[in-house]
Each structure stands twice: as C-alpha cells, then as structure tokens.
Write a structure and sequence with these properties.
Number of domains: 4
Number of strands: 18
Largest sheet: 6 strands, antiparallel
Shape: extended
InterPro entries: ToxA_N
Protein name: Type III effector HopAC1
Number of helices: 29
Structural class: alpha+beta
Organism: Pseudomonas syringae pv. cerasicola
Length: about 775
C-alpha cells in the first residue's frame, strides 16, 4: 500500500568539526529513516469507526461503553501484535527510541547544541552505568495532584549533570537538576513554549488549564520550580517512557470519546483521531522539524546586517513599530494607487475585472499565456509570438487579427499556468480576447488614468503620509546603523512627527536644486539653525540611493556640497541623480555632471536650498516632484507620437516589429550562424594544441595556466597562440623559439615542453583557415 509521508527536507549536518561529522551524518540519516518508518507504521493504527461514532451520538450508555472498549482493545492489539518476528511493536519500538536518543545526541554535539560530556548520560545499556539515576517528570496543578509529563525522562549523574528527554522537543542538557526544574518552570510561564510542554500531559488536564487561561475571572498562578517534581524510575527507563506514552494515548482516547461538550460528529471524530495519533510524541519527527526551524532561524540571523545583530531589544522593537506603520501606509497607498503604478499593474487590474465580469472566473491575466504562430509576409516562414495576456493587451494586435482565417484566430493557443484551459473557460478564446483588447486599448488609456490618479487631492495626501512614515522608519534605522546621531534623529522625528506643523522654528525641511534648474525628486535636507540663524546641523536624506545609506549628517553646507560633488565620480550615483529629473532634462544634466567629475570645481549656485513653510509643504512638493518624474517616465515609454497615431498604424508598427524579430530568430536558428566567439574558439584550439604537446587529452589542461617565460616576455600559451611571440631581431635576448621556461598548475608535468616545440605549435596557417571554414559553413570538426 502506498503511504503519503510528510515532506521534510533534512538539512545535512555541517562538515565541521571534521572529527564528529561522519558519526553525526550517519546518525542524522538513521533519524530520518526512523521518522519515515514510524510515519508508515503509525498510519496502521485503528481509527474511530462508524459504529463508534454512531454509538457516541446515541443515548445507549452500554453500547457506547462497548464501542469505546472495542477501540481501546484494538489499540492494545496494535501495540502487542507480534508481527513477523514474534516481537510486538511495543518491544521493537523501545530499542529504536533508545538508539534515536543517542543519534540525536551525536547530531546535537556536532552542531554545538549539546556538550559532549552529556554522552555519559546515554550508555548503550542502563545497566552499564549504575551511577546514573532515571526519573520521570511531574507538574503540580493542584494542591494534592501531580500530573506526569508522559514520555519525559531525566537522566542524571552523580556530579549533577542532567540530560532531559522531552517528546517532540528532543534532548537538552542542564548542569544540575535544580537548574533544569527552574528552566522548565520558566518555560511553563512562557506562552510560546508552554504548549509544547503541556502537550505531554493527558488531554483532560490540558483542557482544564485551557479553561482557566481563557476565563477572565480565573487566574493561573505562575509555575515555580517547586511545582515540578522528579520521581525515580525503577523499571527499564525507555520501556517506562513508552508505556507512559501509551497510557496517555488510552486515556486521551477515552477522554475524547466521553467529552460532553462535543456534539458535532466530525469534531468528535477529529478529537479521537488526534488522541490516537499523538502527533509529535512518538519518534524523532517533531524534533527534526524543530531542527529545521532552528536552522532557518540561524540562517536568517546570519543574513541580518551587523547593525541589527548588535542592536538592543528596545531599538529593534521600536524599529519594528516604525516598519509596521510604514507597511500600513504603503498598503493604504497601494489600495488606491496600485493600478496606477505602472502600465502592467493597470492592465492586470482592468483585465482581471473584465474577465470576472464577462466569464465569471477570477483569473490572473499574468498566468494566461498567449502563443501565436504567425507568418512572415515576404517568405511565408512562420515564427512564434508568446506573451502573457497583460503584455498582449498592452502591445495590442496585428492588422486584421479579428478577421476570419487570421493567424491570431486560427493559430493561437491559450494556456493557464502552462496547462490547457478547462472546459469551463471555453469562452476564453482568441476571438473573445481580440474584442476585449481592442475595446480596452490599455496602453493608450493608461497615461491619462495615471495622471488623474496621482493628482487627486486625497491620493496626494496619502503619498505625503507614506513619505512621512518612510522617513521616520529609515531615520531610526540610520540612527541604529550609526549614520546619524540620536540628536539627528530627534530633529528628523520632530519635523516628520504628528505635531510637525507646530515644530521648532529653528528646524526646517528643504529641497535641493542643482544648477539653478533641476529640483531633485529624492533629496531632502533637514536643517537646524541657532538663535543667530547660523546652521548647526544638516541631515541630507537620499531616498533609494545606492549603497543603502540614505541619511548623511553634516555640520556645514560646504561638507554637503563636497558630498554631492563626490557623487559625480560614481556611475551609480550619477544615474541616481539623473533619475531624479524629467527625461528631457537628463542629457543636459549628464553633461554638467561629467564635466564636474573631470574638474570638481562647482559653480557658486551648483546647489541651492529650497525653503518651505513647514514639513507638510516640503513633503507635498517632495512627492509632487516624484510624481512629475513618474509621469515623465511614462511619457517616454508611450510618447505622444504613438498616442497620436491611429489604432491601425499602431498595429502595423507592432506587426513590423514582431516580424523583424521573428525573421531574426529564424535566421539565428540556422546551423551556419552558430559560430563560437573568437576568444572561445582560440581557447579551444589552445587546449587541443597544449594537450598534444603534453600528450594528454584535449581539455585536460587549461592553456591559460601554462605560463611561458622568456628573456623578452612572459605570457600564457593561449596568449601566444592568439598574438604570437616576439621574434624580432635581438642579438642580446633569445626569443621563445630558442630559450624558454614553463610552469603550469599543480599536478601537471610540463617537462615534455620545449621552446622549439611550443613556438612551432603556434606557427602556420591553421587559425585563419579555420575561421574561413567556419564562415563558409563548414563543420569545425572536419578540420585537421
């Protein structure tokens, strides 16, 4: 019978330390194999049948008890079934769990989650170490009642070192029993850890605790170390562990069957099945899942920048608070401006709505692929055009695509996520798409839609609110990174906070203008002045700047000027500045920045600061500038001459463009166009030649690593083959043909090389001949 196993990709053990890796790797493999086998084995447990569920829903108490007893008996029979080897499942599972415990210890020691000294708590047999004591773990829930944590086992040595085994959580080491009990009490008082510990108790006790926690009128006192008690285990320890888990299973099954608060048949069935399954309590499955979660958490922590790793918990919580506010503002902005962000977003939203209205299906237009086989008008060759519905709607159709017999109607295949459409979507055909695309005319409509959306007063206010929360969040991050001082952030927060309109008159927010003409759309300056009007501090914000440092602090305007002038030496920063002005102004600004990079002597008015009445006005102009750039980019993407053209002219232009692309693709698919790049070809021939000289197969030795040293020059064999060698007349220095030394990669014997042989291998007419043959369409493999 085929079983469906829970998918869990096990992360291999790290290769270091090398001395413990072989044992840990083998142990992890055995743990995964045991997890798989137990998953299959436990699926064979009996479940709640129809007779039981019917009896539980009836009024006959005796029939109900009979069916409960029958299920419990089936469960007992499952565990005592002798199997093929006359050994019950219970008896087979005990040594498997004991071995799994040692394997887990091996993995944890290798991964530095457990000290190797705790291995003394895990002898091959409990009889081998009489100095060890074994104890079960109990929790006091009431004054006169201690509840066992089923399956928990504490193994202690005389010196006090204690190894605790907890079902589902695995093993962990403690220096003393007292430390273990104190730690468990703290975990029981921690909401995120409490459930994992309480899961080992019988379900009826868990339900009692849950009612107390949920009832506002009741109070659950915090657990103390004194509430946990160790009781000696006098029988075989691991047999005791399994027996207590099986006893919990029996009691949980009866509790699920007899719960008076469960009327729904499906709910009762699920509760009984959960009691039978005991998820996570048998075997290493949950421990391995916890290991994977821990590995992911560690990888995530390693990926964090250093400034977040060393930050205080309070700073991180404040940063998270700022990020939540920014995310909320960003989500609000997307809810009203998401479709205006780009032509693709606009087309997706319009098409999704249209498909839902017309066809009654919520389909993702990006997941719909339109593949059309078209014909070149001059040669009758065919080519394919494949795109998403979003792309097709933006670029439109070819002339006469709606006409009967057209390539679009007759040779188009529509797929959804790479699969043919269902019969329910039969109305979604090429003819329907042609009509919708022509009617919507999305590319032509988008520009005006975007302009109106961004100019609405409500949306402008939302953009200001988003900019405000973004500046605050990034400012706090800059403070954490040390880019600005705490006082600098206080200045930013005072201007961007809710009370910014009534802020200190000594604080101002300014924009930057370059060359008395270009207002930068992503640069802001926070200025603090003294009583006499002298500048005390300048904070320049460069949103979206390369390098992830968005805030820079200065004491004078000259320092800020030098910073901006220094950007002209960086191509990425030059592009950053150019992207902040309208498309038509970029060429002139680029010339000025290039000249400034060559001669960094800016004019007196290179930087000007634009004042605003308050932060709100500054942010309004700041976001308006960004909107202006966005509209400029859209105008470049869809220029006026394109919009002035008729639909027929646009279609003709698209048909010509795609026909050119199709013809080029067809040509490049011809065999004679597949000529290697010249440098790759030279490297291949050099590899063949050096292989012959060394008497090794071609490709064995990289000719770039064979270095030839002469009195005149030093070069690689590939360079010698490509450029030749210095063979000029020189009575004082020998050429490569007469005197040379050779070196190569480690392990390659170059003693077979000689100056004459190497120089001779690069002379001759074979290279030009090979190139001519390739151009003529000959196969390179036919040449000598």
């Amino acid at each position: 019978m085929t079983q469906t196993l829970s998918s869990l990709a096990i992360t291999p053990t790290p290769l270091k330390p090398a001395d413990t890796w072989p044992a840990a790797s083998a142990a992890l493999k055995r743990l995964d194999e045991l997890r798989t086998l137990l998953t299959i084995e436990l699926k064979a447990q009996p479940g709640p049948g129809e007779a039981l569920l019917t009896a539980l829903g009836g009024a006959d108490v005796s029939e109900r008890e009979l069916e409960i007893f029958s299920l419990l008996q089936q469960t007992d029979d499952y565990w005592t079934d002798p199997g093929k080897n006359a050994e019950s499942r219970r008896d087979r599972l005990v040594p498997a769990l004991q071995r799994a415990l040692r394997d887990e210890a091996s993995v944890r020691i290798h991964e530095r989650d457990l000290e190797s000294g705790y291995l003394v708590c895990l002898p091959d047999s409990p009889d081998q170490s009489p100095a060890l004591t074994y104890a079960s773990l109990h929790v006091q829930l009431h004054d006169d009642e201690h509840v066992e944590m089923a399956g928990a086992l504490a193994i202690s040595e005389e010196q006090g070192r204690t190894l605790l085994m907890l079902p589902g959580l695995g093993i962990m080491g403690f220096a003393t029993q007292a430390l273990m009990l104190a730690t468990l009490a703290r975990w029981l008082n921690t909401a995120t850890l409490q459930d994992a510990l309480l899961n080992t108790m019988e379900r009826r006790h868990q339900d009692q605790l849950f009612k107390i926690i949920q009832d506002a009128d009741l109070y659950l006192e915090p657990f103390k170390a004194e509430d946990l008690q160790l009781q000696p285990v006098t029988t075989t320890p691991f047999m005791h562990v399994l027996d207590r888990l099986l006893n919990k299973q029996r009691n949980d099954i009866r509790h699920a069957c007899e719960r008076p608060d469960t009327e729904d048949r499906a709910t009762r069935q699920a509760l009984i099945q959960a009691a039978i399954d005991m998820r996570g309590l048998l075997g290493p499955a949950y421990m391995l899942e916890l290991r994977e979660l821990t590995n992911r958490q560690r990888q995530y922590h390693r990926s964090l920048p250093d400034w977040m790793k060393i930050a205080s918990e309070a700073d991180l919580q404040t940063y998270a608070w700022h990020l939540r506010h920014y995310d909320e503002a960003h989500a609000a902005m997307l809810s009203v401006l998401g479709s205006a962000a780009s032509p693709e977003h606009f087309a997706e939203a319009r098409l999704r709505t249209r498909l839902a209205d017309d066809l009654g299906h919520d389909l993702d237009p990006r997941a719909l692929t339109i593949d059309t086989r078209r014909t070149l008008p001059s040669t009758s060759e065919t080519y394919r055009v494949t795109c998403s519905l979003v792309e097709l709607a933006l670029y439109s159709l070819h002339p006469e695509d709606e006409s009967a017999g057209s390539d679009f109607l007759d040779h188009t295949v529509i797929t959804l996520d790479g699969k043919p459409l269902d019969a329910a979507c039969s109305a979604l055909n090429p003819a329907y798409l042609a009509g919708v695309i022509d009617e919507l005319d999305l590319r032509a409509e988008f520009g005006e839609f975007q302009r109106k959306a961004y100019q609405q007063e409500h949306n402008r206010q939302m953009l200001c609110a988003l900019a405000r929360t973004r500046l605050t969040a990034q400012g706090w991050a800059a403070k954490m990174q040390g880019h600005i001082q705490p006082g600098d952030f206080a200045m930013v927060a005072a201007l961007t906070g809710p009370a910014a309109r009534a802020s200190d008159p000594a604080l101002r927010v300014q924009q930057i203008k370059l060359n008395n003409r270009n207002v930068m759309a992503r640069l802001l300056v926070f200025r603090k002045q003294g009583a006499e009007g002298r500048t005390q501090r300048l904070i320049m914000v460069a949103t979206d700047a390369p390098g992830q440092q968005y805030f820079k602090a200065f004491d004078t305007e000259t320092q800020l000027l030098h910073e901006v002038v220094g950007w002209t030496a960086s191509p990425s920063m030059v592009n950053y500045l150019l992207d902040q002005v309208e498309v038509d102004a970029r060429a002139a600004l680029a010339e000025q920045l290039t000249a400034l990079a060559l001669k960094p002597q800016p004019s007196k008015d290179f930087i000007q600061f634009i004042d605003h009445a308050d932060c709100e006005s500054a942010l309004r102009r700041f976001t308006d500038e960004q909107t202006r750039i966005l509209l400029s980019e859209q105008a470049r993407h869809t220029p006026d001459w394109y919009l002035r053209a008729s639909r027929a002219q646009r279609r003709e232009l698209l048909a010509l463009e795609q026909a050119i692309g199709g013809a080029l693709d067809n040509y490049q698919a011809q065999p004679h166009t597949g000529v290697k790049p010249f440098k790759d070809y030279v490297h291949q021939r050099a590899s063949q030649q050096i292989g012959k000289l060394l008497n090794v197969p071609a490709g064995t030795v990289d000719p770039d690593l064979i270095v030839i040293t002469t009195e005149r020059e030093t070069l690689t064999y590939t360079d010698m083959l490509l450029n030749g060698y210095d063979d000029s007349i020189d009575p004082l220095r020998a050429s490569a043909a007469t005197n040379a030394t050779f070196s190569g990669p480690e392990g390659i014997d170059v003693s077979a090389l000689s100056a004459a042989a190497v120089a001779g291998s690069v002379r001759g007419q074979w290279l030009p001949l090979q190139v001519r043959c390739a151009v003529s369409g000959w196969r390179t493999s036919t040449l000598p």
